[in-house]
Design brief:
Shape: globular
Strand content: 15-25%
Strand order of the largest sheet: 5-6-4-7-8-3-9
Structural class: alpha/beta
Number of strands: 30
Distance between the termini: 54 Å
Helix content: 40-55%
Low-confidence stretches: 1-6, 263-275, 905-911, 933-941
Number of helices: 35
Largest sheet: 7 strands, parallel
């Protein structure tokens, strides 16, 4: 601590927005690290922060600036608007300014700092964090008396849309700070001229790292950073900026990568059993600045009614829009998040229809399907504070500064605490301001989800991120890229790959799989136009074909094959898959009935029923970009919004189960009054409290406490639906949609074998439904009990063989692995054409032993899409008796199964059907528990 009297400031006291004599400065040591001109700019720009922070800096800035100044790898985790990106740039600008001032020749004509962001729009939105500081410092230096001059600290943006003339200019006048995307960085590493400009890089900032770590874009970036580190002249300081994420240590290790093996391995970094050759690797040193909860949050869950069953849909909608309107009117700028793009458009449309105060001048919609011009217009007006309300799905979670937004409303569940805090954090975009957010739930399942989510958020809980490991398709791209860049020892290639966190346990067996694919060792590959991409050879004696004198004879080397290798690599790399819409035709008459987004096909299996254009269709099969269906009167099994909504996180699912166990304890101790009293400790409005208490009161009175799943009980209910002549098995596995998608496929596979009947599956976040004809039945409890954790992976692999899901992901991975080329000799192959090519290759590839692209396809589906590791853990817990399976036979769904029973009726076209079905289920429950009406229950609350 430094007292204000002893603080000498490089600016007159009367020019400050605070009185230095009246405050105590807590972070003088940080301030003293900055050059005088940088200090003065900071004071002029941010002096008003002093009363709020007891210093010049926000919490993430206080923690990060000294670490970056010292060259320490640093992960900065803090809410949106708390200055984490600026803290990175401030320390780096300060260092570049110091060097420029102290050197006669100024800075070199090369890159010192790389700023990598996941979105082009983020790369373009650096005005506040880079241009403003540079211009401000330059102005301060220019205004001083004396001979000091400030040389130019150049910066530029380079991504896929940068034109060739701008690229050429960057070679002549190279930016000292280069802003780019993960894909463009990989291209720059293989650009013969520009890669030389990257050898001087000393800093890498990875912004919004939480949005990269859990996907293959992050995997791709992690290897690019290792390639950059290997070619750089000195060590690189890595800085990661993240919103709320967990576990921080794992994300930090993902950021910094691994050192060469040596010494005793730390816990968690030991090579997997059988992973010979992948010696344990320690992470590089790093520090974490954890300021995730540096801001005050005012978050509450609201519900338009305490009775979401008996209140008509029209009344619920009317109350919802009235609540939303009042929130907007009570605030300056309101940002409304929905869970689908169509939902964002619908909310805006209804606001404008119902209330005259909203029009195109003061309200807008923003999502990824809108044109770039429309999005940029909305972003600009939102920045300027000209829009009273903007609706969005996910597109405004990252990126642009929104200084005027003072309220975020989340409609429905955002499915994870991390997503909730990221979205809510867009409000009160400054430390010292309270973050105000309201979550409005419109159905009972989401009401329960959100109640737990808000309580856990208040307690500091964050869902853990899952980082893909050992992805063969990404490895194929980078090994190919390294071979193209230069002939090099194979040991060097392998070491670079394994220093990247996702490949720290990459075994020799997996590496050899990759090499067999890249060298096209498999007979028949070249006959199908899949050619070798690299050669492997032990450095021949001087008279040999592959002699390279800079390496010793016998040193295994790799190099590129093919004259067009560089062009193929540059035009085909990246990890974001292309997608397309499929034409839907009836099998009987080949009648075209509409289109489906390809992502939706992930959710469809043969026999599934969906709604298109108001009609019901049964999915049969796909050929290329054509889908074939039969008309049907059966009720849908997969809702139209299924593929667009984010899945519930597995961690939050476990917390919901723990919540249900606690609630049952309170219910047992004192009934509904005790439950309501307990729920009032949560950030819920009174309608939410009453609705949740009533739900569980009806559930327990109708089917008993054993009908509710908890951490040590899996509840399954079996319903005989005589009207539909079907038997439904409702499995209340509240572990999220990914987990339920995997477990349901596994059980459906077993049930189909036992019952010799088609089994239909409908999946949600809080469970799933297996349906089969009434004259078929299975011992579902026995099937679950008989699952062997050792067989889960192989059984699930068998269950997804020959499915459209496998076909689609094989195409994506074959394209990522450059087995199928999107662009070749000027021709661009569309996603639907890629699909046709992959379908021709799939049968052949599946017959090849341990073929890398097939193995990666199964790995990605099982691990990244179907949560196989978590399924194995739950099956093991059932096997050991830690979790018991409780089955009940019923003639009507229990209240906790209403959402599963009407899963697909939540499409707009079926809203009346859903409402009627819910009402019928509800009346049956009331009749069974002897409740004549809801009036009595309401009166004693």
């Amino acid at each position: 601590m430094a007292e204000s009297e002893s603080l000498e400031l490089p600016i007159a006291d009367d020019a400050l927005p605070f009185d230095p004599a009246a405050v105590t400065i807590e972070d003088r040591d940080v301030f003293d690290l900055l050059e005088p001109a940088v200090q003065r700019w900071w004071l002029e720009e941010f002096g008003e922060f002093v009363p709020e922070n007891d210093g010049f800096f926000t919490p993430p800035q206080q923690g990060a600036i000294p670490k970056i100044h010292d060259g320490t790898n640093t992960l900065i985790c803090a809410p949106t608007g708390s200055g984490k990106t600026l803290s990175s740039f401030c320390a780096i600008i300060n260092e570049l300014y110091r060097r420029d001032r102290e050197s006669e020749d100024g800075l070199e004509n090369s890159v010192y700092c790389l700023y990598v962001s996941p979105l082009k729009s983020l790369a373009n939105d650096i005005h506040r964090n880079l241009e403003v500081p540079l211009e401000g410092i330059e102005s301060i230096v220019a205004d001083r008396d004396g001979d000091e001059e400030m040389g130019e600290i150049r910066h530029a943006i380079r991504h896929g849309d940068t034109d060739s003339s701008d690229r050429q200019k960057m070679l002549e006048e190279t930016p000292h700070v280069l802003n780019t995307t993960p894909e463009t960085l990989a291209i720059l590493l293989n650009s013969p001229k520009f890669r030389e400009k990257l050898r001087t890089v000393e800093y890498v900032i990875v912004d919004e790292i939480h949005s990269l770590a859990d996907g293959k874009r992050g995997t791709h970036l992690s290897v690019s950073l290792e390639r950059l580190e290997a070619m750089a002249e000195g060590e690189i300081t890595r800085i990661g900026c993240s919103a709320t994420i967990e576990p921080l240590s794992q994300v930090a290790e993902f950021l910094v990568g691994c050192e060469e093996p040596g010494g005793e391995p730390s816990e968690g970094l030991r090579a997997a059993d059988g992973a010979s050759g992948a010696e344990a690797r320690e992470p590089r040193p790093y520090e974490i600045v954890d300021a995730r909860f540096a801001r005050e949050f005012d978050i509450e869950l609201e519900c338009p009614t305490d009775d979401l069953i008996n209140t008509s849909r029209e009344v619920v909608q009317e109350r919802f829009y009235r609540m939303l309107h009042e929130h907007v009117q009570d605030h300056t700028n309101t940002l409304v998040f929905t869970n689908t793009r169509s939902g964002a458009e619908r909310v805006l449309h209804n606001l404008r229809e119902r209330f005259d105060v909203y029009d195109e001048d003061n309200s807008g919609c923003h999502h990824g399907s809108l044109s770039k011009d429309v999005r940029q217009d909305v972003e600009g007006r939102l920045k300027d504070g000209d829009l009273d309300v903007v609706t969005s799905s996910t597109s405004l979670e990252l990126g642009i500064d929104m200084p005027h937004v003072d309220l975020v409303v989340q409609v429905g569940s955002p499915k994870s605490v991390a997503a909730l805090l990221q979205r809510i954090g867009r409000a009160g975009h400054r430390v010292g301001q309270t973050v105000t957010g309201r979550v409005i739930a419109l159905d009972r399942d989401e009401l329960l989800e959100c109640a737990v989510m808000l309580k856990k958020a208040a307690e500091g809980f964050v869902d853990s991120v899952s980082i893909p490991e050992n992805a063969q398709d990404v490895a194929a791209q980078h090994v190919y890229g390294m071979a193209i860049a230069e002939i090099r020892p194979e040991s060097e290639v392998k070491a670079i790959l394994r220093r990247a966190y996702p490949y720290r346990n990459f075994s020799d067996e997996e590496y050899e799989q990759l090499m067999r694919y890249l060298t096209a060792e498999y007979a028949g590959l070249e006959d199908r136009n899949v050619y070798a991409k690299i050669w492997r050879d032990e450095n021949d004696p001087p008279d040999g074909q592959h002699h390279h004198e800079e390496y010793p004879v016998g040193e295994p080397l790799i190099g590129k094959r093919g004259r067009l290798a560089r062009v193929i690599y540059m035009t085909n790399i990246g990890t974001i898959p292309d997608s397309f819409t499929c034409d839907v035709h009836t099998r009987a008459s080949d009648e075209w009935v509409g289109q489906l987004d390809e992502n939706y096909l992930d959710t469809l299996e043969k026999g599934d029923v969906f709604v298109l254009g108001g009609d019901h269709f049964e999915y049969r099969y796909r050929r290329g970009s054509k889908v074939y269906v039969d008309r049907t009167s059966a009720r849908p099994t997969v809702p139209s919004w299924y593929s667009e909504r984010l899945p519930l996180s597995y961690d939050l699912g476990r917390e919901i189960l723990a919540f249900q166990a606690d609630l049952l304890d309170h219910y047992d101790a004192g009934g509904p009054p005790r439950v309501r009293a307990w729920l009032r400790e949560f950030p819920l409005d009174d309608d939410s409290v009453r609705a949740i208490a009533r739900l569980f009161d009806h559930q327990v009175r109708f089917a008993g406490a054993d009908s509710v799943s908890t951490p040590d009980r899996l509840a399954i209910e079996v319903e005989r639906d005589r009207d539909e002549y079907e038997r439904h098995y409702y499995v209340h596995s509240a572990y999220g949609r990914k987990f339920n998608d995997g477990l349901s496929r596994l059980l459906a596979y077993r049930c189909a074998q036992e019952a010799t009947a088609n089994v239909r599956v409908a999946v949600a976040d809080n469970g799933f439904v297996l349906s089969m004809p009434l004259n078929r039945k299975v011992d579902i409890e026995g099937i679950v009990d008989d699952l062997d954790p050792e067989q889960v992976r192989s059984d699930l692999r068998a269950a997804i063989a020959d499915t459209d899901l496998l076909q689609r992901y094989f195409r994506i991975n074959a394209t990522r692995s450059l087995m199928i080329l999107k662009r070749y000799k000027g021709y661009e192959k569309s996603a639907s054409e890629q699909q046709v090519s992959s379908e021709m290759l799939l049968g052949f590839a599946e017959d090849l032993a341990e073929f890398a692209v097939i193995e990666e396809t199964y790995r990605e589906i099982l691990e990244d899409k179907l949560n196989v590791d978590e399924i194995e853990a739950i099956v093991a817990a059932i096997d050991s008796g830690e979790i018991t399976v409780q089955r009940q036979l019923l003639d009507s769904p229990t209240p906790r199964a209403f959402g599963l029973a009407t899963l697909s009726a939540s499409d707009v076209v079926l809203a009346e059907d859903e409402s009627a079905a819910l009402q019928a289920f509800h009346e049956h429950v009331l009749e069974e528990i002897g409740e004549e009406s809801l009036a009595g229950l309401a009166s004693d609350e």
